[in-house]
Amino acid sequence: MTNKNEKIAIIAPYTTLHGEDKSNRFRSLAALLAERRSVTLVTSRFDHARKFMRSSEEASSQDIPYSVDLIWEPGYRENISIIRVVSHFIFIIGLFWWLIRRGNGFDKFICAAPFSMSAIICKAISRKKVVIDVQDIWPEAFFMLAKNKSVKRLLRSTEVIAKVALKKSDAIISVSSEFSTRCTKLSGGMPAKTIYIGSEVSEELRRICRLSVRDSETIRVVYIGTVGSNYDIRRIAEAVINFNGDKKWELIVVGDGPMLPDMVRRFSDHNQIKFMGSHSFDEMVRITSECHFAINPIIPESSITVTNKVSDYFAIGIPFISGQNSSEVQHLVSQVAPQLCYESGNAASFQSVLRWIEKMSDSEYVTLHERIRRIGDESFMRRSSYLAYEALIDSL
């Protein structure tokens, strides 16, 4: 039973704010919970994605149903660095003092991990119910990339913090079944509930993403997201260029990132590869609506599971080719069609998927759309899938 006077604090240092880029998990959750509760979203003054400081006026002037509190930290430039670890530690100190001042005014806390220390101090200071929402098994994702031994030692030390946070929490939510299994083990047996990151795609945008009937000339594959080292866009582009099929193929890349300038130079003479740059989420969906398939070309070494990208593809309702090694993602894609999975890093395996697509009938293509829309409706549309999140909060 929902208590209309219930006060909930969401501690999410990495979240975006209203008006910043696409909607974040915790923004969506705050808006949902605020329909029948008093909600405060507590985040960092430092915008981690764009690496700049937010202003207090920016947070307080927003026309949203929940309040926003900003906690200062110095910030950093490099994602894998001691300076980042120090910055996060300073945020935790700021959160401690925020809890001393305001912690007793809340009934429940939702704490985003990998900022696991926030769950520990929320529980210690407030003695109220704490839900930990695991976005990533940290520091594993960073440990693979860290080269400095001091950074690695600091990252390893956070494993102990993560275990303590999971054991101290009253409920565990994670963004993938693989993470839920790990969290249950690390917590000593507490069941973890899986609620995918999901996406906020309006019904109007979903209607725009109508079924693209394949023409006889060109099949368009779209990639949306960061052009960075975790995604093997170069190999996919080369495979498209070198593919000798019955139809013309195009790869459309929508997004920005550190590797974009190199990719643009490398493929500047190939009309089949088109770089659209960064766009708003709504415009990205519109570009996607003009394509036939999407691509999820994660490198073989990656340990990530059900990402924002995967969530967006399912929510938008576009069938996608996936090279991700995650068994959970492979299972999800296989529910649409197992032939859409290829071996990451293997150009020939990717091209075999293109051959299968070329032989596909229009009715088979329609079936793919129906299947991915069904999965998207059930598990990836936040306005429906996050109701399970709300029910868990109410049960505490």
What does this structure look like?
With 396 residues, the protein is of the alpha/beta class. The chain has two domains: 7-198 and 382-395, 3-Layer(aba) Sandwich (Rossmann fold), CATH 3.40.50.2000; 203-379, Glycogen Phosphorylase B (Rossmann fold), CATH 3.40.50. Helix content is 44%, strand content 17%. It has 17 helices and 14 strands. It has helices spanning 25-33, 56-60, 82-102, 117-126, 140-143, 149-168, 177-186, 203-208, 233-241, 260-266, 281-289, 308-316, 327-336, 347-358, 362-380, 382-385, 387-395, and strands at 7-11, 38-44, 46-47, 52-53, 67-71, 108-113, 129-134, 171-174, 192-194, 218-224, 248-254, 273-277, 293-296, 320-322. Strands 5-2-1-6-7-8-9 form a seven-stranded parallel β-sheet, with helices on both faces. It has a five-stranded parallel β-sheet with strand order 12-11-10-13-14, with helices on both faces. Strand 3 and strand 4 (52-53) form a beta hairpin. Helix 4 (117-126) crosses helix 6 (149-168) and helix 9 (233-241) crosses helix 14 (347-358). The longest helix is centred in the first third of the chain and has 21 residues, at 82-102. It is globular. The protein starts with 6 loop residues before the first strand and ends with a helix. The model has no long low-confidence stretch (mean pLDDT 90).
